[in-house]
Amino acid sequence: MDTNKKLLKSQSLKDLLGKLTQSGKTVYAPKKVREQVDFQSITSPEELAQDYVQTVQSPKSAVFPRVEELFRFRNGPEGVKLSERDMSALPEIVLFGARPCDAAGLQPLRAIFTWDYQDALFKSRMEKVTIISLACQTSDEYCFCTSVGLGPGDPTGSDILLTKLPNGDYLAEIITDKGKSLTDSMPELFLPAPADAKPAALADVQVKFNHEELSKKLASLFDRTDLWVGQSLRCLGCGACAFVCPACACFDVQDEGTTHDGVRLRCWDSCGCSLFTLHTSGHNPREVQSQRWRQRVMHKFSYMPERLNVFGCVGCGRCSRACPVDMDIKEHLTAVMEVKA
Amino acid sequence: MNDANLYLPYLMRIENITDEAPGVKTFRLTFQNPEEGEKFDFKSGQFGEYSVFGEGESTFCIASSPTRKGYIECTFRQAGRVTNALSNLEIGDTIGFRGPYGNIFPIEDWKGKNLLFIAGGIALPPMRCLIWNCLDLRDWFKDVSIIYGAKTVADLVYKHELDEWSKRPDVKLITTVDPGGETPDWKGDIGFVPTVLDKVAPSSKDTIAIVCGPPIMIKFTFPVLTKLGFGPDVVYTTLENRMKCGIGKCGRCNVGKYFVCKDGPVFTFSLLKELPPEY
Q1: Is B93 in CB contact (< 8 Å) with chain A?
Q2: CB pairs below 8 Å between A and B: how many?
């Protein structure tokens, strides 16, 4: 019997969420708020969203908040005093029902925040997160996980991967030690899996291109201005793609408050925004939108694999769903593969 | 978690302020906590993030030499929000400093060589660190030449030090200002830096060239150096892309697979030629 596989009965979900919450953990799961499904704190299975393909926002804010306090400052009669937040006081978080692509999206973030200097803020959040992901049975026309080496049932980045069985129960695959200690602590919920448990069919996500070949090809396409201009003529430079991306990590550092009392923050930013690289002198190394679009593609599919050994994209398709001018990255990457050298 | 918060700056006291040129100032800074100051170490070429609390951070090189212990200096032009706020500070005020970041000028490898420094305008500060570093180790090197130009006589920074270098028998200093930037009593050259370099035509034999200046100056200086026989491996420069973190994370200074903050700011021209032109 495979000890890395357990059975989670559908009626046990309520107890699982109850136990996680009682033990002081915060559970974030896809929940419908108005017409939008996003990761929200939940306490009962009834709150779980049904019939959706993907949350609008990725769950990356659990480890890389949209706005994060770096430290506070006070400038009083005794001079400047800096104070840091106690990161050990953060609650343990369970990301329940994350898509496999969401779980995989934490890998590029980890690479960026730890490839050289170790970012303690990111690491302390990451240590507190356990990911119970749910394999995809449905997809839409924007999904392309299979083109970037992942898939609707890929375990990369998950601590526990749940796959629905035809009768509504779940097969729980234990991927990491974190996942094991969680399932070991609740043996009454995570039962021995029957040897003949056959998961229901997963989503059929068609492969549109090979990401390794794309990476190689991009290395010679930097100077193809026609390609980059053609693809990005309608780009508004709004940065929505980066804000919904599970793998985008670019940020800005800003002070808020007064010179006497305030806080230094890091906030999400995007290489698609025109001010991103603007020098104080007025010189801008990427002064037009096509250069910024090229940077987005090159960074994710050429520079990151070369430098950090990880792709900056997990094929979730959120950028394309969010784009106000309907730029579909999957289509653009497919077109890149068709460019004649 | 033993890792320290990377974004928490040192608190620095402004010990001295020098007016260098219109809108350009040099701060001498000491560590408010002497223990931090004793542990602090850096090398020529490195930079830091300087901050005014409530206004934000700004990136400049460390402009003083690592051979001068007990303080660091930075020189900045009043241009944006942070540098405007810095300009309003006084001796005794506190600012934040993170660093040192980035790579270094490999001066150990330059022992026994001639050094040719070429700088324009506000780009002398990153080179001033290196110049003093090399002058404090003067017997490591053979001839030391400096070509420095600015738009006008008023825009030349470190005037007192230019004066000092011009009087040293072991330094050859050539200062120049752009045509029209001269004053009636100006005794230096008149002409753009690349033109003056072409005219002076220093020998490339056993010589390392270090070039710092605005992008336009760098662009026109490199062909002259090539003409004089300098190979791309012996020509160094320092890049100044916009940065926020300084530690290879915020993505802003990314050029190709490189980060100016981690793989630079010091680059040889041979490496520069490999980079996409996004600096």
Answers
A1: no
A2: 134
